[in-house]
Predict the 3D structure of the following.
Amino acid sequence: MINFIKIFRRQEFISFLILISISVILYRCFSLQYIESKNYSSEIEKREIRKEIIKASRGSIVDRNNIILAESILLDTLSVTNADLFLKNNSKDIQDLCVILNKNCNELKKDIQRKRNKKQFHIKRQLSASTVQQINSLKLNGIIYEKEFQRFYPRGEEMAPLIGKTNIDHVGHMCLEKSYDSFLKGVDGERIVRKDKDGKVVKNIRLVSPAKDGEKLILTIDSRLQYVAYRELKKKIEQVNAKSGSVVILDTSNGDILAAASYPSYDPNNKNAYTSEGERNRAIIDSIEPGSTIKPFLFAAAVDSGSVKLGETFDTSPGYIKFGKKIYKDFKDYGLLSSEGVIIKSSNVGSIKISQKLDKKTYHDLLEYLGIGEMVNIKFPSEISGKLKHFSEWSESDIRSHALGYALQVTPLQLAKAYSVIANDGLVINPRINLKSFIQKENKQRYKKGFIQTKNVIKQVVEEGTGKNAFVDGYTIGGKTGTAEVFDKKYNKKKHTSLFAGITFTNPKLVIVVVINEPNTKPDQFYGAYVAAPVFKTVASDSLRILNISPNIVLEKKEKVSSKTEKMDVTIFKNPEDKYVF
């Protein structure tokens, strides 16, 4: 009987405990459902509902014909949303992922371990579609894809030193991408979304603000002409084993820069191809001493001011002139030359004698009017102003040096601008790279008389002087060759800059400047007549054809000039412009 009572009491106690437990559970359920539900719902929402950035697309860059030069494309970025879950994946699958991503597997695991407390972090950004497909085949847990923009440059290396590139965060990093970054980048938007435990968006709740894409940048560049300029520049530099070079093509009617090619370059779509040398757009940011390409402006200043008359003769015998210890030589003794002949033969002696009749201020003012020593201001990073001292600081040797294109510095773009003033009979039109920017013309046309006469002289330079290798069949061409010794603490007689600056007297007129830095050629083959003029010839010929500009010389004239060129004695090509000898 006593045992029965003990058993009954124990059963009763156990039942009581069970009853109490059930009561507690029921109370807790009631509390969660009706009393604390708001608090817990709020916590759940904090984990599930997120603000998400809507990325704005960076504006595209196009040429004057709407050909895409830079655009943004959406790619997938691989991120880990649950480190513990990811590390529980099959080890072989993780190894396969590392092979696909070209990552060290141990380093990847250690990196994930270090970041395991983060809600989400990137493994690899901006993956191609084929890479994403390979990763998906592994069926990994704990990962997610996010959409990110990557910049793509369809024209590759021919445009790279001009367009530049963005960094991995889509921010303009160099060249036009950098200078127009605020114009191109746009404004990100924002939305409220619900995400699942893996971080995937399952519901768009509310749009806070829409994304505003960046603006389209339309350049004055003609990508067809840029291709021609780059192709011929690269070919010549490789042919003569030169250090670098540039080509500028300018439309003289409005200042539009149609091409600004630079070599060496790099492929902006290949992260491993970038070099600091390839980044430089030498047409805009490198200054050079222009050598004999400056002589037409000496002539213009002298004729316009009346200091020198057309046909006035200068005795260049015996082929050199001395000032103290400095000797200035011609290629040979040209004897008596007219003022025009001094430019046509590129006589250093004759040029110095012209400068002696010219007031320093007069020459300085004309060079300043051209924009020498002033930035062109096309909104390009690191653009430089060149160098032109005030005439009050010129020594007697300075004016002689300036007559031969030394002791002053220009960029190839500045030189192109200067030659456009010849083409426009003294009217200055500032170059532009943005097609939507205003055309900047000087209000007053100056030195008209001098530039009209200069125009006639530089035509003769191509027809019968040092610029014969720049002759383009069927077209009137004017220009000037140039060769300058490279200054490195002192002038180096073994290193030269070879130039040709020319004008196509067509409608519209084009100015083309070719600069080849430090060609490694046979002795006496480094002159602008041999190195740069042939590049001008091909670039001009192809550009005129592409732009559908018809020949401007009548058939009889064309046949006469062609016949004359064919019968020309090869020895006439041995009279290039002469280098400046100290």
Remarks:
- Residues 2-35 form the longest helix (34 residues).
- The mean pLDDT is 87.
